[in-house]
Amino acid sequence: MTAPAVPGYRDLSYSVDPAAVDAPSAVEFMREALIRIDEEEVSRIAAEMERKRAILAPLLAREALKRSTADAVRPILARSFATRRRSDELLVAVGGPNIARAILDLVHGDAPIAERFLAFDDALAAVDPSVRRDLGSECLHFADPERAWLWSRWMWDPVARTGALPLVMVQDFDFSAPDAGGTYLRVGVALSAVLATADELGFRKMRSGPFVVDVYLAAIYAVYLYTVLRIRMTQEFTRIVPAHPELIRRLLGVHRLDG
């Protein structure tokens, strides 16, 4: 049995199968995550993402991006988790006007969202794929979180085939697609399936705002990351890894938002 695509992700024109979610694994990871970060902290981080959206809104506006200058895109790059430490590198590699035009077409273009995402990916071909895709999804998501979704490498890494989403999806869920635009859609389908089963899994809060599901998934990834580090690294090394709330904020690009 299928359910309609979750309202909000309106660009998904096909149905979502809630059975794609591995319910026992999802519940286990959620419960483990909420041992380390309570729901009040989830709400605070989601509110910080709303504030990040308010900061980015004028920067992602059509008129701002039409200026097509390095100054127009530098503050956007500075607030993306993937690009904040390499803004100058990206501006040299691609050029401020080119990045501004690519973001303008991505956020404000008329083509279907997968086509816009692919065009953005092609326009920033000189940039590491995971970096440009993280940046593109952040621009879309923070410009219109009701219509577009986040795709960060910690959610789904198509090279390593790891991330928060495969931890909660059934094993045979297929994230593969012929290009970045198609993969962006597959990530959206997975997110929609998670949201479609949130009430059933006992996590109704996940639907309370457009950024809450991002926080939950970042919390799940933090659990996974700590588990891997405990297995592979020394105890001394794991001590320097940020605590869960800080790690989640870093993954979502809201750590020291004003800094």
Which helices and strands, and how do they pair?
Blueprint: H1 23-36, H2 39-59, H3 62-65, H4 70-77, H5 87-94, H6 96-108, H7 113-123, H8 129-143, H9 164-168, H10 180-196, H11 198-201, H12 212-232, H13 235-239, H14 244-252
Poorly predicted runs: 1-7
Q: Shape from CA axes?
A: globular
Domain tally: 1
Q: Whole-number average pLDDT? A: 89
Largest sheet: none
**Helix/strand/pairing class, anyone?**
mainly alpha
| Structural Rg | 18 Å
User: Which H/E pattern describes the elements?
Assistant: HHHHHHHHHHHHHH
- Number of E strands: 0
Query: Ends: how far apart?
Result: 48 Å
Structure, explained:
It is a single chain. This protein is an all-alpha fold. It has one domain. It has helices at 23-36, 39-59, 62-65, 70-77, 87-94, 96-108, 113-123, 129-143, 164-168, 180-196, 198-201, 212-232, 235-239, 244-252. It is globular.
